[in-house]
Amino acid sequence: MAGVLWIGLLYYFNFVQVPGMGQALADTDGPGPAAIGKYIAPRALLWFRMAAAVTWLVGLSLLVQAGGGMQGIHLAFTFAPGFEIIGLGSWMGTIMALNVWFIIWPNQQKILGMKQATAEEITTAKKNAALASSINVILSIPMLLTMLAWH
Length: 151
Known about the structure:
- The structure is a single chain.
- This protein is 83% helix and 0% strand.
- It contains five helices and no strands.
- The longest helix is centred in the first third of the chain and has 33 residues.
């Protein structure tokens, strides 16, 4: 369930919210994007981060179960025989989770005004968050396919 929420929010941010914010900024007669940035984005980002963490931790626990203990994690992340496909998916999921927690979230805090930042830092933060988020979108389908293929 957490994985579905994580990927759903990933697609929401990339295909709904970001274009919607751009449209709201361009609409000089409209209400602007302030409500999205103040009320919706922080709550959605909280669920996004938590879903990423829960999904990653559940994935590790499944590797432990499949590999007869902590060795399962090692087998997957080193592409041991029988663990090549899930290892690839595990690495993609790990990259995606790290992107969420260490690139997207800190940059979104600057963009949304939750963390002090100059105009230049906000411009850079937008680029960095967008790049990491785009990478996650690109990785999401192959990652899901490796998870399905392993079962």
